[in-house]
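batch job 7 of whatever, protein = P-type Ca(2+) transporter
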Amino acid sequence: MTQNSALVLERDTAFCLLLLQVVRWGRSVYANIQKFIQFQLTVNVAALTINVVAAISSGGVPLTAVQLLWVNLIMDTLGALALATEPPTDSLMHRSPVGRREPLITNIMWRNLLVQAIYQVTVLLVLNFAGDSFLQEESETDTLTLKNTIIFNAFVMCQIFNEFNARKPEGMNVFKGVTQNRLFVGIVGMTFVLQIIIIEFLGKFATTVKLNWQQWLACVCIGLVSWPLAVIGKLIPVPKTPMSRSILRAFRRLKKSRTA
């Protein structure tokens, strides 16, 4: 092999490696965007459903405006930063290329989103309507504030633990490689510390009261359930056809049947 041929081969090899890295990081950015969308939609769907159902049934909302702003702040900012820093993995290169018309929200994401949102809404609505029977306070106002504080804290705990689930929308082991992303671990830890400060020291600002260790443990356990629930949810098969296309086809069939 001549020297020129060796230089050409070396140049082509370097170009192929560079192209491979570009594709790898491009797929990683796309995957991280999907992770954050799944995570954020779960937060919004659960919060909206809880407040709407509570407002219609009882006229009050368990999650105040300040609490919702706090949730959006830590989830939109810190949550997005944590999931955006996920490094690329080798499994990304085994995926098929995504077409221009492919939906950003896949059926797998819808499945994961609905499983977590249904669980959160169910548990928090049970606390909202039956929480008074578990709390023993002298004042009705204190009981209501305490109940709403537990609902708010349990809701945030669910989002903190669900952030790990968002790392692996398709994988069973959501902790794989988590120790390699120190920024993710640091952000989750900081979110937890900030939540403690909100509950224990900023009660007037967030309309909350201090919780004892049993109540904190209950909130953490409610959030922990999201981990085994995510594994069970991933056993549910999903169709390959995107949900948006299935709905559009069903709408067209209904329209044709009416015009026929």
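notes: Residues 32-90+103-252 form a domain with the Calcium-transporting ATPase, transmembrane domain fold (CATH 1.20.1110.10).
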